[in-house]
Every structure is written in structure tokens, then in C-alpha cells.
Amino acid sequence: MIDHAHDLASVRDATERLLTALGKLDNASVTQPSRLPGWSRGHVLAHLARNADALVNVLEGRPMYVSGEARDADIERDAPRALDVQLADLRESAARFQEAGDAPADWSRTVGLRNGVTDSASRVPFRRWVEVELHHVDLGIGYELEDLPAEFTEREIDFLADRFAGHPDVPATRVTDGTRAWSTGRKPGGQGPEVTVTGPPADLLGWLAGRRDGSALTSAGAPLPALPPL
């Protein structure tokens, strides 16, 4: 069962880790490329702030974004800002998200996200946790997938394995760190053999999330599957 209050607390902790790390940077650092193609670190920070506000919209029953074009325009507008402005915006938008999350609500209700995706309101805090943790890694400022909380890594692997489950372009795949295992892709017994992908949790997460190429993983039964973009 999803514990939204626990996840809200985890978002708060992850945000504080991020803000502390960002406080050691300077304005020049923010303009440098992130690990995301075409995005500076400023783009990542602008996205994180606007995503917090977008998820407030979700929790309060409004469309997540006015449009995809408006989302992209807001990120481009905010990306060049100085570090102190970025930090203030990230802190204030995070506080607005926490306030919306702390408000009395029916957490079992279904909410709308982007591109017609729906989910339980109770999972929204975890989705924000994902944004903060993975984009902290994407900044390339010394926080790596291996530094992520173990609980987060296991849950995100589970979430991504479920996301690719039944995908026609992903063969039946068993993902394992040697202790735990997840199934994803097409159902076993269909077209092609089942693939077993094995490796450390951080590398499994990196591959599933499109942050690593999977070269540190081993694949048995067939070559490592090429995953479609998230």
C-alpha cells in the first residue's frame, strides 16, 4: 500500500539534499551542461520548480500543464536565471507542493497527469520524489545513482518494470539484482526467448530510467533489450 505521508516526507528530505548540494555551486556552474541532452543545469532546475507547481495543479484538480508548448516555454524562460533565483524558486515551489500535499484530501481518488495518463493521488508524492532524486543525479554535481536511498531505488525499479510490462517492443524480461526480481516486457511464452538481466540495483535503475546504457549488466537468453524512451 502506498503511504503518501511517508513519501511526502521523503520528498522533503530529497529536496533538502538537493538544495544543500546546489548551495555549493556558483552562477557559472548553473549554465554548464547537465547530463540530459540539450539541457543546461539551469534547465533541470527550472523543470524541477515548474514540475512542483504542475503537481500542485494535479492535486488541486487542474490540468497539470496548460499545454506541452507552455511547459517547454516556461523551462526555456527560467533556465538562464542566476543561482540564487533558481534556489529561491525551487525552495518556494517545493513548499507549495508540500502544502498541497498536507491538505486534507481523498488520496484514493484518480488524478490526471500529462498526455492522458491517470494515477492514484496517493502516488503523486512518489512521482515528485522520482523527479527530485533522478534530476539531482542528472545535474552531474557529485550525486550518483549509487547514492540514492535503497528504498527509492527498489521502488523505482518496480515502477519502471511495471511501466514497460506488456510493451510490444520489449521482450519478456526478468530483471534481478541477485536477491530481488522483477518481470517486465511482453509475457513469457510469446515471441522470442525470455531475457534475464542481472546487475547491481543502481545499474538496473540507470538502464530502466535511460540514465545508463546497461554495459555494466549481464544478459542471458538474448542480448540486452533496447528500451523505448520513457
Could you please describe the fold and organization of this structure?
- With 230 residues, this protein is of the alpha+beta class.
- The chain is 49% helix and 9% strand.
- The chain has 8 helices and 6 strands; from the N terminus they run H-H-H-H-H-E-E-H-H-E-E-E-H-E.
- Strands 4-3-5-6 form a 4-stranded mixed beta sheet, with helices on one face. It has a two-stranded antiparallel ribbon with strand order 1-2.
- Helix 1 runs parallel beside helix 6 and helix 7 packs across helix 8.
- 32% of the residues are buried.
- The model has no long low-confidence stretch (mean pLDDT 96).
The low-confidence runs, each spanning 5 or more residues with pLDDT under 50, are none
Q: Give the tally of β-strands.
A: 6
**Overall pLDDT level:** 96
Instruction: Write out the strand line-up for the largest beta sheet, numbering strands in chain order.
Output: 4-3-5-6
**Can you give the helix content as a percent range?**
40-55%
Give the SSE string: HHHHHEEHHEEEHE
Write the layout of secondary structure elements.
Blueprint: H1 4-22, H2 27-31, H3 41-59, H4 68-78, H5 83-102, E1 110-112, E2 118-120, H6 124-138, H7 150-164, E3 173-176, E4 181-184, E5 195-198, H8 201-208, E6 218-220
Parallel strand pairs: 3-5
Antiparallel strand pairs: 1-2, 3-4, 5-6
Quick overview of this protein structure:
The chain has 230 residues and is an alpha+beta fold. Helix content is 49%, strand content 9%. Helix 1 packs antiparallel against helix 5 (83-102).
Question: Which short descriptors sum up this protein?
Answer:
single chain; 230 residues; alpha+beta; 4-stranded mixed sheet; two-stranded antiparallel ribbon; 6 strands; 49% helix; 9% strand; isomerase activity; SCP2_sterol-bd_dom_sf; isomerase; Maleyloyr_isom; DinB/YfiT-like
